[in-house]
């Protein structure tokens, strides 16, 4: 039993890391939706999302054809992932409610955590596929530059404000 719990905890940590890492891969650049938090990615009305995409396209030197294909990839991903994000928000809310109730048993909390982890894993797989599609339409030079830009953005983030609470 303890081995299974350790494996579940390890799986949860790995999937959470994969989801957070893949989310950072396109953070601020593509039209990706998050977990309900508002940021520059979701500010399309004032040009935030479009502006970030255009900035990335300019930095990478994307052709008009590449821009069109990239937008199609991002739009398709956003549409495809919307139900997963909605489910993830719901399941996280349910997990928080269980934890805050004070009366939930360990098994119920673990079961709900497993649901959250499974959704996070599904999103990580979808984001990785979207990332592969985007990188596939780039030239080798553009792909290398994109990976360097993504790494620089990830390195410059520092600890998340959520973890400082």
UniProtKB/TrEMBL annotation:
Region listing for Disordered, in residue ranges: 146-165
Subcellular location: Periplasm
Family annotation (Pfam families): LTXXQ
Signal sequence region: 1-27
Keywords in alphabetical order: Periplasm, Signal
Keyword Signal: yes
Domain of life: Bacteria
CDD domains tied to this protein: CpxP_like (cd09916)
UniProt family annotation: Belongs to the CpxP/Spy family.
Protein's UniProt name: Spy/CpxP family protein refolding chaperone
């Amino acid at each position: 039993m303890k081995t299974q719990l350790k494996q579940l905890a390890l799986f949860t940590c790995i999937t959470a890391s994969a989801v957070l890492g893949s989310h950072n891969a396109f953070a601020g650049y593509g039209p990706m939706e998050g977990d309900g938090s508002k940021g520059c990615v979701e500010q399309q009305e004032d040009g935030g999302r479009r502006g970030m995409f255009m900035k990335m396209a300019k930095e990478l030197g994307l052709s008009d054809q590449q821009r069109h294909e990239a937008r199609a990839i991002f739009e398709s991903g956003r549409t495809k992932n919307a139900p997963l994000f909605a489910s993830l928000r719901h399941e996280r809310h349910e997990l928080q409610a269980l934890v805050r109730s004070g009366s939930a048993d360990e098994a119920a909390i673990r079961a709900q955590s497993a649901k959250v982890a499974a959704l996070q894993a599904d999103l990580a797989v979808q984001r990785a596929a979207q990332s592969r599609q985007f990188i596939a339409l780039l030239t080798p030079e553009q792909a290398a530059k994109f990976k360097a830009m993504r790494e620089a953005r990830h390195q410059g983030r520092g600890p998340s404000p959520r973890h400082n609470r």
